Structures are given as C-alpha cells and as structure tokens.
Amino acid sequence: MKWVRLKRSKIKVFGKKGKTLPKGFQEEHTSFLHSLLTNDIRGLKPFSFNYDLWLRQNGSPIEDFFVYKLEDTYLLDTEGEAKKIIEEFERLKLSLKVYFEDLTTFGHIFVFGESAKDWVEKTFGMVPEEGKFFEKDGVFVANNPLRVREEGFDVFGKLDGLELPKEGEITEEDFEDIRIERKVPRIRKELREGYSPLEAGLLNVAISLTKGCYVGQEVIARIHYKGRLPRTLVLFKGENLQEEQKVFDGEKEVGLITSVSRKGLALGYILTTKLEEKRELSTATGKVVVLD
C-alpha cells in the first residue's frame, strides 16, 4: 500500500428549501451547484460523489472539485484556495439562500495500491463501493479511482491518531510523477485557460451533456458536436523537458508541454491532426516522442 498527504481545501455547502426554484429542485444549494458545475449534482444520491469542473463562459476551467453529497449538504474537495472560492460563490449566489463553510483544517490522505482496500477495512470496519463514501467518527472515506486511474481511497477529516504504515508513505513529488505517467489532467496544468476539458479527455468523467444549462455549457456542446477535437492530451518522453515548452514538427508549432515528471515523461497537448504514437517531434531542448 502507498499513501500520500494531499494539500486540499474543503468547503461545506448548505442552504434552505426554495419555493421558486426550477422544476425538479427542492434545495437552493443544490440548484446553485447544479447550474454552476459541469456534472450532474441533482442526480447525486446521499453518500455518493462525482468529479466536476467550474468553467468560464468560454469553456476554460477555473477550478475542479470532487462533490460529496451528504443527506442535505455537500462537501467540496478542491486544490483551490477555499477563501477565494467562497468569496466568488457568495457573489454568484445572488439572492439564493446558500451558505458556505471553510473546512480546510481537515487533514487529507490518499491510499492506493496493493492492500489499500484491506487497510481501509481493517481501520474502519467497512469499504465503500466505487463512487461512494462513508463518515465514521469525523473521518470521511471515499472509494475514488479517478486520482491515479486505479482503486484508491480518499481519507479526510479529523485524522489525529490515524495509524499509517511509515514504509508506504510517498512524497507529493512521487505522487505527481504517478499522475503524469497515468495521464491524469490537473487544474492549472492541463486544465487551463485556452484549452477545453474535452481535449483533456474528461467528457465521460466530469461533464454531463444532458443535465441542462451551466456556465460554459454552450461552448462545451459546440466543441463536442463538431465531432473532432482540435488538440489532444498525450504523454511525451524526452530529455530536458520543461513545462510551457512549445512542441514542433519541423518548424511548425504543434503542441505544448504542461507537466513534467522526474522520469523523463511529460504531459501536454498536440494538434489532433499530428497525433501519431511514437511520432518524433522536438522542443527547444531536444527531441520528444509521443507515447500515448
């Protein structure tokens, strides 16, 4: 089993039942999140969660969240700064009776790999199903395979006294290398201004095409129904790679490096018309090969 301490913010979202909400909504905070985020909030069942993006009108990501549905409240888990997010949410909620609480004092670890499931069962007496979570004695445990594309468990809350094997701990840098190797896009790296989350492969992960309107929805739908993405997120291999390096095919700029690992691998975008596995391209510092 491997585990890592993650620096994540937590925001509690709650509110009141509303009498003038759109059809199908009973709670003002549910209506607020559903109309703001890209995934289906209204359809979440208690003690389940999903992955969402908060977009600008042009479809570029501002922030991403794992949204946890409790009985009548939500918990947002995000890499962003809770204070700034809450300030913006307060501005956007208008007259809705929606309230926010900063829970960033919560600790957060992620456990994954061989025997992680056994550790969860031994420690908490139960194991949540994929996409579900439970809360026990102030600790939340969620079965979340999206962080590194394998079964893993987010454990957050009041973690004082939680026993973890010292030999399994990895650093944030180790975890970042794993993320890059497994092509998991990250906010402010791959998920950034000027790039569509569809190009990062998040259509079936973070985006609902049937939930109705949300901020940025028209742009997302337009790109999707064109049937071909302008760019594609790929894994590169090369030497001396650096973030923000441009990728060239001859003298033509065809891509951008967005994240670099310590193992000679990098994530980045390439024009879809140039996508070809093992295609050799170049950067300012040398050759680069498309792996996947």
Written account of the structure:
With 292 residues, the protein is an alpha+beta fold. Helix content is 18%, strand content 33%. It has helices spanning 28-36, 82-92, 116-124, 172-181, 203-206, 217-226; strands spanning 2-5, 9-15, 48-55, 61-69, 74-78, 98-102, 107-112, 133-136, 139-143, 152-157, 231-238, 246-249, 252-260, 265-271, 280-283, 286-290. A six-stranded antiparallel beta sheet has the order 12-13-14-11-16-15, with helices on one face. It has a five-stranded antiparallel beta sheet with strand order 1-7-10-9-8, with helices on one face. A five-stranded antiparallel beta sheet has the order 3-4-5-2-6. The longest helix is centred in the N-terminal third of the chain and has 11 residues, at 82-92. The model has no long low-confidence stretch (mean pLDDT 94).
Radius of gyration: 20 Å
Oligomer: single chain
- Tally of extended strands? 16
Give the overall silhouette. Answer: globular
Spatial arrangement of strands, main beta sheet: 12-13-14-11-16-15
